[in-house]
Design a protein that fits this description.
With 256 residues, the chain is mainly alpha-helical. The protein has one domain. Helices cover 73% and strands 3% of the residues. The protein contains 9 helices and 2 strands, in the order H-H-H-H-H-H-H-H-E-E-H. Strands 1-2 form a two-stranded antiparallel ribbon. Strand 1 and strand 2 form a beta hairpin. Helix 4 packs parallel to helix 6. The longest helix is centred in the C-terminal third of the chain and has 33 residues. The chain is globular, with a radius of gyration of 20 Å. The N terminus is likely disordered.
Amino acid sequence: MGSALDVKRTVDRLAPAFYGTDGDRSAWGDWWLLLHPPYTLWHLSYVAIGACLAPTVDGGRLVATLLAFFLAVGVGAHALDELHSRPLGTHLSAGALVGAAIVGVGGAVALGVVGVHRVGLGLAVFIVVGAVLVCAYNLELFGGRLHGDVLFGLAWGAFPVGTGYYAQASTLRPSTVAAAAAAFFCSMAQRSLSTRARHLRRSVDHVQGTMRLRNGDTVPIDRSTLLDPIEGSLKALAAAMVALAAALVLFRFARA
């Protein structure tokens, strides 16, 4: 009986994220998973959206800001998250993760420092806040008080929009605040959906049940019944945000 149960659990175990692969992963697969490509692109889209709201858009500043956020969030933040609690279960060594975090966060800060000379001293505030958010959130400092839904919406949604705009205009406007609010609520939706998806993938071994319809029919329930609509929504939202950012960038540069 115990052997059959172990086999069942092995069959039902899924990858830790929909963009990962089930079963054993190569080192490249672990790095791919660590980057969280759909979510990283989603949050980079907020940077582009913020930048495109500015009166004029400088292509060099936009590329530099996108690269800084890729390094800070895509590489640094995700490396620190994996280092802290191994939520992805990768086989990457602690040294490799520390190195990735240093390169990611350090590279982002370096790009920001270079940008201060062009954008203005106010950009330094965004650099400091961004570095603190990445470390405090992903390492769950201060007793994990900053590792919550609201801060996720602010740090991973509103903050990229504001930084993208400021890097272009050296100021903030009411339109920036409105766009940042939209990104905040989109990120809150992402957080709500992804939290449930992570629970089903990483903590649940097996789901079994039925739904009884009003006409008397029954429909079986398994993990995919619960997981598919959640991850389908996450995929659609990520694709929509990337498409919106691409449309705004193309519109602004086509006009130029």
